[in-house]
Amino acid sequence: MKVVEQDFDSSPDWVGVIANAMGGVVDGNFIRGDNDIYKGTHLILNIEEEIIAMLVDVSFKQTLLLKHKNNTDTSFVVLSFFMYNSDVELVMNKKTTRFGKLDYNFLMIDGALDVDHIIEKETNLYCIYVIIKKTIFREYLKNVCKIKEDIVFDSKKNTIINVDRMSYQSQVLINDFRKMAPDNPYYEMSFKALTYALINNYLEQLKTKKTILGEVVNDDIKRIIVSKKFLQKNINEAFPGIDFLAAKALMSPTKYKLLFTKVLGSSPAVYFHDSKLKKAKELIETKQYTVGEVSDQLNYSSASYLARKFTNVYGVSPKEYQNLL
Q: Could you report how far apart the first and last alpha carbons of the chain are, in Å?
């Protein structure tokens, strides 16, 4: 297993840190690499004075122990939104946590903590890191989330951490952004907009949580993800109901609804209807179907109801949207 260390010092040069550790050619705000470790790109942007965002889109050519070490700079926290094609082990304070499709895919961690990633060969990683100064982050918690007390993971170090799943809305935003080509003249501007949206979604997600430190049992997470896939597979049908979904997940209706909302950021019904409307948008984009045909295909009560929901969310009617394409 190859070991790669990324060392962060006071006010780190993020481009330099990544390029020195991973190799690659610096091209403006991009680092483009193709070596014995990985193939892919890193994009690093200053969003504003105290917020930096980094996009990582790479494939690993060998099994890697990636060590993040911080010697002096403890002034920031990192929001990490992960998308892997296979599971990855993350080691913090001698505790191993699995990240992947059926496990956690979000990490908010204090810059003061050392973190190791164990990444297997042929793993594809698409990740967005949002690096925020603690002073700004605590203001967000206080003013947006109305969290007044300090969030403490280790009282001796006064560090903060949150292991979770990103909201469904954040997943949709990231997947939509991935469709944009990096050579698009609006790519970096769109990435900045995405960064702000991800921060906002995370803060909104925190409003529904009683504690930022709560973790969910891994088996429960997997049952919720299986339930999510069931809803996606049956998107053309009517919403099956909480009682039915909870029974399939081997949970009580109350636990199922609360856990689904915690893991995915919205209730089962909201998730289902948002997904149905997104599918309607995709079908309309093909220009192969009328609004009535899309309505029938997705089991809406009427074409007018679909048009009303579509207009409320996207700001234009389905027919107007087709004309814009």
A: 48
Helix (H, G, I), strand (E, B) or coil at 90: strand
Angle of helix 168-178 relative to helix 187-207, nearest 10 degrees, comes to: 170
pTM exceeds 0.90, yes or no = no
Q: Say yes or no: domain 218-324 is CATH 1.10.10.60.
A: yes
User: Reading across the β-sheet that carries 30-34, which strands appear in turn?
Assistant: 25-27, 30-34, 38-48, 51-60, 124-133, 76-84, 106-110, 161-164
User: What would the 3-class secondary structure string for 138-194 be?
Assistant: HHHHHHCCCCCCCCCCECCCCECEEEECCCHHHHHHHHHHHCCCCCCCCHHHHHHHH
Residue-wise pLDDT for 142-159, tens only, equals 777 665 544 444 434 455
- CATH code for 2-207? 2.60.120.10
